[in-house]
Design a protein that fits this description.
Length: 101
């Protein structure tokens, strides 16, 4: 086994605590989404079982939660600003620098 393959497998094994829970939740979510059809690898349910599953889905609370963020649509009214200071950025009069004519 060459060094590159050894490094790849080492990184894969070290990363298990990160990617294994993610893959597990993904698997559970797919099975939950496909439960009307028997899951990913389950058998197709009978019409009576399917109706029971559909009734159970109708009683469940929604999994997706929408929380409106009211502050995003509101623009704050800024306080009245005083006169701009003079200077090159404001376009006001400039003072001559030392040594210029």
């Amino acid at each position: 086994m060459d060094t590159v393959a050894l490094i790849k497998y080492t990184v894969l094994l070290i990363g298990i605590p990160i990617w294994l829970p993610f893959m597990r939740e993904l698997w559970l979510e797919f099975n939950l989404a496909m439960r009307e059809d028997g899951g990913l690898w389950g058998q197709t349910p009978t019409p009576r079982e399917r109706q029971r599953i559909v009734d159970g889905i109708a009683r469940e609370p929604l999994r997706q939660v929408h929380l409106p963020k009211g502050h995003l649509g509101i623009r704050r009214k800024s306080a009245a600003q005083g006169p701009l200071p003079s200077g090159p950025q404001a376009g006001g009069p400039r003072k001559r620098s030392f040594g210029s004519r």
